[in-house]
Design brief:
The chain contains 9 helices and 8 strands. It has about 280 residues and is an alpha/beta fold. It has one domain: 3-Layer(aba) Sandwich (Rossmann fold), CATH 3.40.50.150. β2 (about 60-65), α3 and β3 form a beta-alpha-beta unit. α1 (about 10-30) packs parallel to α2. The N and C termini lie far apart (about 40 Å). The structure holds S-adenosylmethionine.
Length: about 280
């Protein structure tokens, strides 16, 4: 399987911001970071940027299944002279994990496009029928810490419940509205999202969805923030049959802050959490 490598400035850089925030929170609370394992490196551009900005003690082992993405990642990592800190493996993350311990923190902006089948523009972005299949598999691996990008159109409430059922607490989240892009606007995908919305599995306005950087942990007595995130996600929707663009606009403006976090009184990216 090989196609165009995925890189979206808005989405990929938001993912990078969430990863950098996680590293800095960890450094503040524990004085050190942890090893990170990445599912789906893409072009590696984003995480190269993060690694250049944070301390040299941070290491990532990334896995990429798609051949052209892998090649692009390898060349970007080389250009940034990060080979010693950003290890890259070409292949299926889940197959590789059969022989590796689930240690440290799993990070991923996973494939989450929902569609009845993988015949979509970029098949390696397919997240199963409801969009959350890869995320569920990742959570089931049992890493002590997990940071996943979660889309409000990919069965987000089901995914929050899945994580709870796997003994995770949602310890931190940051969300932002994103306009449907080239891949989520593909008619087959967009139609399917509308069907999922009718079934209560997608939460979208006419032109946007919420993208959330969600961090779960299995460690420590952590308060779980799933309910507050679920409330925000439920609010990001247009009442069915209202047919009114103004209502869609109103919904978007209601959350028009570029980034919404679980600690709104502070700078959005300096969030306390229950870690
Ligand atoms: C949404 S893209 C994210 C890429 C990059 N992290 C970013 O945010 O720009 C998801 C990536 O996961 C890769 N991928 C999908 N399934 C995979 C698997 N089972 N193992 C490794 N990589 C996978 C895809 O090829 C794609 O590059």
């Amino acid at each position: 399987m090989s196609a165009t490598p995925f890189y979206d400035e808005e989405e990929s850089e938001f993912y990078g911001m969430c990863v950098e925030d996680l590293i800095r929170r960890r450094q503040r609370s524990h004085g050190s970071a942890f090893g990170m394992v990445e599912l789906g490196v893409g072009t590696a551009k984003t995480i190269c940027g993060v690694l250049r900005r944070v301390g040299a003690s941070i290491h990532v082992h990334g896995f990429e299944i798609d051949e052209s993405s892998f090649r692009s990642a390898r060349s970007n990592i080389r250009d940034h002279a990060l080979e010693d800190r950003y290890r890259l493996t070409h292949g299926d993350f889940f197959e590789a994990m059969a022989d590796l311990p689930a240690r440290g923190c799993l990070i991923s902006n996973p494939p989450y496009l929902p569609s009845p089948d993988p015949q979509i523009r970029l098949p390696h972005l397919w997240g199963g029928e409801h969009g959350d299949h890869i995320s569920r598999r990742a959570i089931a691996l049992g890493f002590p810490h997990v940071l996943l990008m979660l889309s409000s159109f990919a069965n987000p409430l089901g995914l929050l419940r899945w994580a709870r059922a796997h003994d995770y607490s949602l310890v931190h989240w940051v969300a932002r509205p994103i306009e449907f892009g080239d891949y989520s606007s593909e008619p087959k995908v967009r139609r399917h999202i509308d069907e999922l919305a009718a079934a209560g599995r997608s939460f979208v306005t006419e032109d946007s969805y919420l993208l959330v950087g969600a961090t779960w942990s299995k460690e420590g007595p952590s308060a779980d923030r799933s309910a507050e995130l679920a409330r925000l996600i439920r609010g990001h929707s247009v009442p069915r049959h209202s047919g009114s663009a103004p209502s869609a606009r109103l919904t978007r403006e209601g959350i028009s802050a570029a980034v919404i976090s679980d600690r709104r009184q502070d700078s959005p990216m300096v969030a306390t959490d229950s870690e």
